[in-house]
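hey m, so remember when u said the tokens were messed up on ur end? i reran from scratch. heres the input so u can diff it against urs
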Amino acid sequence: MSGGQDGRNAALAPHQDIALVDLAAVRQATYRLFAHSLLYPDGERLRALAAAARELEHADPVWEAFAFHSDWCSFLHCLEELPLRDLPALQNEYVTNFLARTGELPCPIWESAYLAGDPSAAGLVLAQLEREYAQAGLAPSPSLRAGPDHAAVELEFMSFLCGQEVGAWNKRDAGQALLLCRGQRAFLRHHLQGWFPQLSRRVACAMAASAYAPVTRAATAFVVHDSDLLDALVDLLESPGDAG
């Protein structure tokens, strides 16, 4: 057996006692939590994030066996404390570091900012994302006020794809589940995996004491883990006698 195959088996091994539909549902909730934690903070959102973190902290510890578990725990603890933070200061920190368009932005929160200043490449990424969302039957939400390459939008799309996978497993449609896992893997490779490590490093340098440092660190660790997991799932589902 190849080293790559061994690595993929290792990625899947801690999940072997979990039904694939349940695994997809946990991944769906995890991506959604990361997405909402990277939207502009308001009081209602912070309270909802804290409640979701408390619920996940006391749920079945699916991620306990993985290397990113300590980052995951730090992330949940950070979310639980968000309502206690100074909201105007948190909002100013978000805008100044992630969104402000004047000067050199420390930690841009959209993918196209990480394309070495190539406007044509940025335009292609935006067009590609809009096409992928449209093919999935999704349209931009006017209330979100975030571009298609915003971190929260890309993470929410991964959550949506995991939700589609849940539906496929509930219908016992392993073929459709395989297609969705391939789509998730491709989206991670083409988008989040390419720029989230850079975002996390920038946040660690510019915002080390910020609430967003554990958020981006855990999100990046999860994206890397999930890519390995999807490799293993695709291998499993492409094999004879695949699991359900």
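this time it looks ok to me. The chain has nine helices and no strands. if urs says something different then somethings off w ur setup not the seq
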